[in-house]
C-alpha cells in the first residue's frame, strides 16, 4: 500500500515531466502536425488539426506527441514493417494511433458504457447498412463468432472455398466451436467462386444420409483476387431463395473497395454477416468488427462472452481501429476516391509482379490488389531457400506469396529486385 509521501513524490514527478514537455514544446511551430508521414488523415484528426492551427496554444497531449515525433520510439516509424513482405498484418500503429488511444474513453464495454466502442460499432453498422455491429479482438474471432452465431443445432455444414482462411488458418475453430461439417468448393475459373460452383457442392436434400448446408462463407479478397460484386449478388439471391445464411470473411474487403470494385454497403447487402479486420493493411494493433442484424448481434454478444471475448476498457483498441481505418481506408463506405494508400500498395504489387516477369519469372496467380504470387517451382528454388536468401538482403519473406502494404519502403523494393535478379539469374544459367 502506497503512503501519502509516495503519492506526493509521484505528483511532483508528473508535474516535472509536464513542465519539461512544455519547455521543449515552446520553440516548436504551432502549425498542425501530421504525426506520421501519411498522405491522408482521418476525418476526426483533420478536424482537430484545423482547430489547432487556429489556436496559439496546444494541449499537453499534442505537445507530448510533437516531442515524440522525433524520439527514438517504435510509434514514430514503420520500423521492420518497411522490409516485411510476409503479410499486411505487419503494418504498425503510428503516432496518430497513439494520439487516438491517449484521447479515448476508458469505460466498460461489457456494461455497454464505452463511448469510443459504441461509436465505432454504430459507425460500422451505418457504413455497411446493417442495424448492428460488435467489436472483437481479431479477424479469426470475427469469422468464428459469426459462424457460431448463425449455427444452432447439428447436423449442419458450412460451405466455403477450399482455399479459405476459415479452413486453413483459424486453428480448426469450425470443428471445435460449431461442430459443423465442412463442405468445400473449388472455383472453376481458378480465381473466385461462382453460383454454379456452389450449386454443385451444396447439400439441400432431405436425405437422412446427408449433412445439410446451413451457411455459405465467402472471402473477399481471396489470395489477392476480388470476388466480383455481380457474382456475389447472384450467389446471395440463390442462397436466400434456398434459406441459406451467407457470411463474408471481409478481412481484406478494404482492398477490393480500394480497387474500385464496389463499396462496403453494396457488398454487405449481399450477406447476413460480414467480418472486417482493422489490422490487415490498416495498421491497427488489433481488432475486428462483425456487422449484422440486431438479433444476430445480440446473440453474438452473448456467445462472445462465453468465448471469453468480452472486453472491459476496450476503448484503447476501438479508438485505434477507427483512426487506422479512417486514415488508411478513408471516410465513408467507398473510402478515399483515389483508393488512398491502399491503392498505392496495389501499384507496388503490379510493379513487383512486373519485375519478376521481366527477369524471366512466372506468376502462379494474377495480380489484382496487393498480393503477388511468384512461381518458385518454375524458378527451381525452394521456399525455404527463397526466404533465407531474402533475409540476406534484410527482407522478411514467406515463400511464393509476396504481400505489399502501405508501409513498404522504396529501399525494400530495390532489395527485392536484387533478390529476383539473383534467383532468376540462377535459372537462366541452368
From TrEMBL:
Entry's Pfam families?
Beta_elim_lyase (PF01212)
**Positions of the Aromatic amino acid beta-eliminating lyase/threonine aldolase domain:** 84-378
Name the Gene Ontology molecular function terms of this record: L-allo-threonine aldolase activity
Q: Which domain of life is it from?
A: Eukaryota
Q: Which residues carry this modification: N6-(pyridoxal phosphate)lysine?
A: 280
Identify the GO cellular component terms for this protein. Answer: cytosol
Q: Which UniProt keywords are listed?
A: Lyase, Pyridoxal phosphate
Q: What cofactor does this one take?
A: pyridoxal 5'-phosphate
What biological process terms from GO does the record include?
Answer: glycine biosynthetic process; L-threonine catabolic process
Instruction: Give the matching InterPro entries.
Output: ArAA_b-elim_lyase/Thr_aldolase, Low_specificity_L-TA-like, PyrdxlP-dep_Trfase, PyrdxlP-dep_Trfase_major
Record's signal peptide:
none
- Family statement: Belongs to the threonine aldolase family.
Q: What is this protein called?
A: Aromatic amino acid beta-eliminating lyase/threonine aldolase domain-containing protein
The organism that produces this protein has a lineage beginning with: Eukaryota, Fungi, Dikarya, Ascomycota, Pezizomycotina
